[in-house]
Amino acid sequence: MHHGEEKARVFVSQPIPTSAIALLEKHFRVIRNADDRILRRNELKKALRDADGLLSLLTDKIDGDLLAGAPKLRIVANMAVGYDNVDLKAATERGIMVTNTPGVLTETTADLAWALILGVARRLVESDRYTREGKFRGWGPMLFLGTDVYGKTLGIIGFGRIGQALARRARGFKMKVLFYDEMEVSPRVYERLKARPVTLETLLREADYISLHVPLTDTTRRLISREQLGMMKSSAYLINTSRGPIIDEKELVRALKSKQIAGAGLDVYEKEPALAAGLKGLSNAVLLPHIGSASVETRTKMALMAAENIRKALSGKRPPNLLNEVRWNRGKQP
Ligand code: GLV
Predict the structure, then answer these.
(1) Which GO cellular component terms are attached (predicted)?
(2) Do the Cβ atoms of 303 and 17 come closer than 8 Å?
């Protein structure tokens, strides 16, 4: 840093693991929202007026209007693998780099999907509540009978990093693994995992557990709606650790209520943090507050990865996880 030269300013929109803050503070002037709450739009807008970099979270809606009020902004480093909260096109038009945090949260998210599978199948949450409420009167031959996971058929929708990580777990449970992906997956990848590519309809009709691992895009929005729920077995469970809008939540509530399907394990919702009417009251659904990547180890890696993307971008280097083709090597703006 030359004498008199001002350090670039980086805004961090909510508290994150401190090692990432320390990394940023070594190089930049870090401005933080120290409150543990999601910023209102006008607060974020104000914070971005003189920011060169933003470490954003998926609760920050980064659209063209917001970016228009951020003349110095050069990078949005989203601390998430999904980036449907960022208008990539608007950022690209303004020459703003956008990055995400792929890879580091794969196993952690697959673990949570697995926890949801076991949790809904064996009725963990209901049983826990029952025990706490003092209702446990001793072992019962008919007490909380659930469904087996071992040896059943798993249907994975979206066979990228996380979908494949789920397939690896399924092998230990001797499950038959089907997957559907709109993109071509190399046989080298799925043969090793003993997974079989099928159409979406076949997957829906045959799987006992269906788990979603697609990003939210125009083609995946409401991929699971009334028709698709209607194809599922009445004994099947639906697991979602991807993005809420992949499922038509109102239709899901209807299907769960009428026992058209057996149950659901959800970590994400269509209109987070709101839940569709009726969802809360269903005992055949396990509902989590979007904690797919929420382990200390993984959140630390994600925060450091986002910070490193900012460090690179603001020193004229290509950030490792760049998502859009913008000029990353231009100098500081006048
Ligand atoms: C979390 O939802 C993520 O996309 O990382």
Answers:
(1) cytosol
(2) yes
Residue 248 dihedral angles phi and psi, to the nearest 5°: -75, 100
For residue 289, whether the previous peptide bond is cis, meaning omega lies within 30 degrees of 0, is no
Query: Three-state DSSP class for 294?
Result: coil
Q: Where are the domains of the chain?
A: 9-102+296-315, 124-282
The predicted-structure confidence for 149-202, as pLDDT tens digits, reads as follows 999 999 999 999 999 999 999 999 999 999 999 999 999 999 999 999 999 999
Identify the pLDDT of residue 203.
Answer: 98
C-alpha torsion sign, points 281, 282, 286, 288: negative
Beta partners for residue 237, in sequence order:
209, 263
Is the pTM higher than 0.70? The answer reads yes
Q: Which residue puts its alpha carbon closest to atom 4 of ligand 1?
A: 82
Say if ligand 1 is within 6 A of residue 102 CB: no
Is the per-residue pLDDT at 113 higher than 50?
Answer: yes
Asked if 43 contacts 22 with a C-beta cutoff of 8 angstroms, the reply is no
Q: Does domain 124-282 have CATH number 3.40.50.10990?
A: no
Exposure pattern of 237-262 as b/e (b: 16+ CB <10 Å)? bbbbbbbbbbbbbebbbebbeeebbb
Distance separating alpha carbons of residues 299 and 224, to the nearest angstrom: 29
CA distances from 228 to 24, 130, 178, 246, 281 (A): 46, 33, 16, 12, 23
Give domain 9-102+296-315's CATH number out of 3.40.47.10, 2.40.30.10, 3.40.50.720, 3.30.460.10: 3.40.50.720
Ligand 1 site, residue 58, Cβ cutoff 6 A: yes
* Size (the chain), residues: 334
What is the best residue among 81, 111, 268, 269 to mutate for testing ligand 1's pocket, by most ligand atoms within 8 Å of CB? Answer: 81
